[in-house]
């Protein structure tokens, strides 16, 4: 018997084995059709707990995006399955459960696996990041092997001139191209900024609005722009990608790499590390923050809602210091965790040495005022940050603290910007600007996408220091510590029992809500998830739920079905 014959027989055997196991058995195995999954929810008292719930089907827009995903062959390179091994879960998140594939026909497990796994990509990046990524992946990651998908954009060939609108604003010349993208007669405006190369991104929301070209710091010096406009296919594709993994709720708030706490890091200045930091910056940060760290990188035009940070201004939002400048620990925390809800991703996968090196480059090369070339002013040299502020252990959550937080919300007039419901639609929201002259959108606190972190200590830190460079003030002097804690708990509660993607209230009975609100109930992992209707003592593990397992029959028995 020749080796060639054995190889042929083995190949035929494994082909039919794969056909049976992947093609036929899923139709006979109940676990392949369950939509039961475990998900993280935030309770009324700010706690994060796992509970048993049901996956939801794709919306029409997300289904269209899935069709585009299949059409463009994205699944050839990207897998969608987090395997139950240590390396997988530390990179991507909790192990995939069978219920997550209830509405996937066919399953998109992927084959080549030469791109990142996308099973947990939902809300890892903002929509704006994805827009820049589809235009040119190498703007964000020079070593990416992904091809640009510019065919998903509407890209007119002819540039459009920038003109004066007669009211002191810059706008676009009215041409067949621009009139097809905007409504110049509309009283509602949309503010857009081209990048330094003259590329102007136009989102779908611009339809029906009048364009205003915002260049407060000479971000672009030309007189005409090339347009890259969003299409419905692109909107749908991003909607589908953002759905992936979100049947597991707010799991990212419990993801270990994004819970890094750093008080202080001692790292002496070194020319070698600054040089290494420059290399890291050029590979990982330049696309958004720009060559000079001014926040005007080639991808910045796509980030039309929240501009990248300008390091040149030495204004940093997230810190635990009394003075404006952050410590190395503050910068390390921000780089590692990322800034949720924005295009700034979490860089926990980047080696620690790279993260520390890029901090040195930002501090000593970018955070420098060079308006006088002969006497550059290095902020971190001239104004070194003081010691970190001390944050005590938070008080235990309670109804009394929540009620007090609701009162403080009114006293501090948080509603003026964030709105009474916390959705970012307050009466002052429309006119807010940052220190550089760009519009600022108040955070929608009902989303649970807190930029500085999702723990009550993170919210308290923001209440204490404010967000430098934005209209968000510090309440360190105006509110006593106990009121800042109460307000922080109240802010967390605004996203309680909300779907993190749709922001809609979750369907939870009053009994289950009361059980989850029980401060003594522990549900810290999927195998200990609370099961609705089973009482606070009943967990998913008691119903036989494992990684990818089925609880359908036992759950039906519990529910009397």
TrEMBL record:
For this protein, the record's Gene3D superfamilies field holds: Cytochrome c-like domain
Q: Which segments show compositional bias classed as Polar residues?
A: 550-561
**Superkingdom of the organism of origin:** Bacteria
Which Pfam families does the protein's record reference?
Answer: Cytochrome_CBB3, FixO
Give start and end of each Cytochrome c domain: 272-366, 400-495
Q: Which residues form a coiled coil?
A: none
Q: Which UniProt keywords apply?
A: Heme, Iron, Metal-binding
One GO molecular function term of this record is: electron transfer activity
Specify where the region named Disordered lies, as residue ranges: 526-561
Protein name, as recorded: Cytochrome c oxidase cbb3-type subunit 2
């Amino acid at each position: 018997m020749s080796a060639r014959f054995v190889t042929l027989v083995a190949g035929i055997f494994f082909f039919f084995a794969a056909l049976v196991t992947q093609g036929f058995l899923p139709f006979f195995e109940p676990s392949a059709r369950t939509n039961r999954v475990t998900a993280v929810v935030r309770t009324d008292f700010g706690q994060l707990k796992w509970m048993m719930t049901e996956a939801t089907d794709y919306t029409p827009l997300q289904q269209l995006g899935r069709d585009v995903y299949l059409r463009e062959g994205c699944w050839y390179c990207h897998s969608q399955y987090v395997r139950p091994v240590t390396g997988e879960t530390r990179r991507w998140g909790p192990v995939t459960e069978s219920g997550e594939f209830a509405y996937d026909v066919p399953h998109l497990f992927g084959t080549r696996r030469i791109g990142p796994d996308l099973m947990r990509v939902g809300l890892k990046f903002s929509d704006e990041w994805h827009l820049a990524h589809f235009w040119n992946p190498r703007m964000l990651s020079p070593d990416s092997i992904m091809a640009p998908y510019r065919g998903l954009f509407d890209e007119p060939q002819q540039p459009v001139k920038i003109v004066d609108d007669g009211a002191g604003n810059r706008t676009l010349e009215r041409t067949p191209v621009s009139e097809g993208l905007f409504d110049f007669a509309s009283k509602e405006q949309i503010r857009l900024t081209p990048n330094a190369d003259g590329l102007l991104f136009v989102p779908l929301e611009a339809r029906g609005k009048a364009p205003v070209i915002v260049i407060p710091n000479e971000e672009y010096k030309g007189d005409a722009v090339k347009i890259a406009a969003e299409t419905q296919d692109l909107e749908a594709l991003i909607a589908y990608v953002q759905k992936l993994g979100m049947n597991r709720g707010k799991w990212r708030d419990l993801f270990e790499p994004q819970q890094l706490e750093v008080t202080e890091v001692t790292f002496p200045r070194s020319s070698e590390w600054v040089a290494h930091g420059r290399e890291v910056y050029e590979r990982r940060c330049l696309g958004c923050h720009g060559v000079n760290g001014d926040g005007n990188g080639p991808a910045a035009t796509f980030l039309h809602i929240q501009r990248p940070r300008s390091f040149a201004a030495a204004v940093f939002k997230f810190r635990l210091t009394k003075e404006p400048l952050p410590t190395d620990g503050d910068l390390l925390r921000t780089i590692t965790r990322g800034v949720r809800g924005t295009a700034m991703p979490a860089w926990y996968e980047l080696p620690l040495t790279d993260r520390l090196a890029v901090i040195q480059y930002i501090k000593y090369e970018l955070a420098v005022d060079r308006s006088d070339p002969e006497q550059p002013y290095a902020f971190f040299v001239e104004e070194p940050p003081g010691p970190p502020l001390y944050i005590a252990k938070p008080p235990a959550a309670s109804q009394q603290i929540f009620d007090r937080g609701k009162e403080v919300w009114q006293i501090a007039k948080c509603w003026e910007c964030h709105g009474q419901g916390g959705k970012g639609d307050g009466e002052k929201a429309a006119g807010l600007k940052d220190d550089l002259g760009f519009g600022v959108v108040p955070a929608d606190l009902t989303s649970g996408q807190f930029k500085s972190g999702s723990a009550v200590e993170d919210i308290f830190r923001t209440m204490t220091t404010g967000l430098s460079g934005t209209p968000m003030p510090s309440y360190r002097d105006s509110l006593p510590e106990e009121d800042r804690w109460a307000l922080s708990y109240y802010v967390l509660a605004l996203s309680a029992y909300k779907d993190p993607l749709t922001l809609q209230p979750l369907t939870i009975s009053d009994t289950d809500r009361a059980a989850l609100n029980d401060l003594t109930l522990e549900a810290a992992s999927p195998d200990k998830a609370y099961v609705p209707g089973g009482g606070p003592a009943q967990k998913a593990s008691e119903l036989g739920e494992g990684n990818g397992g089925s609880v359908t029959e036992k759950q039906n028995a519990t529910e009397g079905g």
